[in-house]
Design brief:
The complex is a heterodimer of chains A (about 120) and B (about 110). Chain A is an all-beta fold. Chain A is about 0% helix and about 55% strand. Chain A contains no helices and 13 strands. In chain A, strands 2, 4, 5, 6, 9, 12 and 13 form a seven-stranded mixed sheet that branches. Chain B has about 110 residues and is mostly beta strands. Chain B is about 0% helix and about 50% strand. Chain B contains no helices and twelve strands. In chain B, the strands form three sheets. In chain B, strands 2, 5, 6, 10, 11 and 12 form a six-stranded mixed sheet that branches. The radius of gyration of chain B is 13 Å and the shape is globular. Classes of the chains: A mainly beta (about 120), B mainly beta (about 110). Chains A and B meet through strand 4, strand 5, strand 11 and strand 12 of A and strand 5, strand 6, strand 10 and strand 11 of B.
Chain lengths: ~120, ~110
Amino acid sequence: EAQVTQNPRYLITVTGKKLTVTCSQNMNHEYMSWYRQDPGLGLRQIYYSMNVEVTDKGDVPEGYKVSRKEKRNFPLILESPSPNQTSLYFCASSPRLAGGINEQFFGPGTRLTVL
Amino acid sequence: AQSVAQPEDQVNVAEGNPLTVKCTYSVSGNPYLFWYVQYPNRGLQFLLKYITGDNLVKGSYGFEAEFNKSQTSFHLKKPSALVSDSALYFCAVRPYRDDKIIFGKGTRLHILP
């Protein structure tokens, strides 16, 4: 089954404790992206990647890191989480067609709480 | 600055009536436009897209959207609403020759039985 998986689905942590949220897709998509969803703010793009070893900042990259060492994986790293990073996080992937990025396939989400 | 606006936080429609969820955008060039739906405790699902061609595009679950270049709008429509259409709807834009994606803040659609 074609899918985007994220782990963990739920995470409660404390300020300053480094954490990684994994994202993996099995559709051989070039494009992968991370978003955070907050009430009243919709989805905001954190980072995206056009292909292996190519990453770019979205609208809210501060406090986050990403890496794209393999095509299928795109982990999100919070080196020193803070309470304002409490949010619902989504990973997404998309094929890169001739005209550019097309519709995205989303993972189930990771609900992160930073105390 | 490039942006997407969904002017209504919530839309209430009686079952069987037509529905419209509004989206306007402000980006340069000819963007790609998308609608996604989010059901409770689920990820987003793609509904439909406009890239080029016919201004009226049809998508999943009987939804359609009308692209209006002069008004920079991409409103989501359905002729007859179902209770099961109740969800959170997001409009998204991929600016021309850009790899960023800009989402609107979302509109919660309530279909009243």
